[in-house]
Amino acid sequence: AQSVSQHNHHVILSEAASLELGCNYSYGGTVNLFWYVQYPGQHLQLLLKYFSGDPLVKGIKGFEAEFIKSKFSFNLRKPSVQWSDTAEYFCAVNAPGSWGKFQFGAGTQVVVTP
Amino acid sequence: DAGVIQSPRHEVTEMGQEVTLRCKPISGHDYLFWYRQTMMRGLELLIYFNNNVPIDDSGMPEDRFSAKMPNASFSTLKIQPSEPRDSAVYFCASTNQETQYFGPGTRLLVL
Hints:
The complex is a heterodimer.
Chain A: E1 3-6, E2 10-14, E3 19-21, E4 23-26, E5 32-38, E6 44-50, E7 56-58, E8 64-68, E9 73-78, E10 87-95, E11 98-104, E12 108-113
Chain B: E1 5-7, E2 10-13, E3 19-24, E4 31-38, E5 42-50, E6 53-56, E7 65-71, E8 74-79, E9 88-95, E10 100-102, E11 106-110
Parallel strand pairs in B: 2-11
Antiparallel strand pairs in B: 1-3, 3-8, 4-5, 4-9, 5-6, 7-8, 9-10, 9-11
């Protein structure tokens, strides 16, 4: 069965600091990978996704993620965070041909202090 | 497109009452998902449909929960009878076989 592990449950950092959130998955086959963001009181919104091709994926709001197949990882990064990046971030995995089986990580709560 | 639409956005009810949550997926999406989110348990997949047919309901907590999708543009999640531990945010999501799009959620409080 697929599983998704997010390394940190809570991250606190100051504005302008760099952010990296870890995500590892366990699935032997080809997967599609996603990062979603949930701002306080809102629903999950897609930040970026990887299906194939260039393993460095750029998303909205300055976020990017790198797929490293050998490490089964899909870490999210942002070079300089803003207070408005305070949110919960979810990594998700899905296998082509099994579209219903989106597997979400437990989420990482990120707090950016002014 | 208006995105995934859910109603009501907020629901407060008393224990023992029936609660019905509604969802309208994005037109053309053939998968629909119901999730529950709580602080304690995080995001949980309850059930999902493909072309209006329930595919996996293993996440439905117990028989008090039921979900239907009578047509491609409408789904309901029903809790009968409701209990305080059902208090949560319930999200509906739909997918075009590539990406899941979430609705705004229904915040349910069972007193």
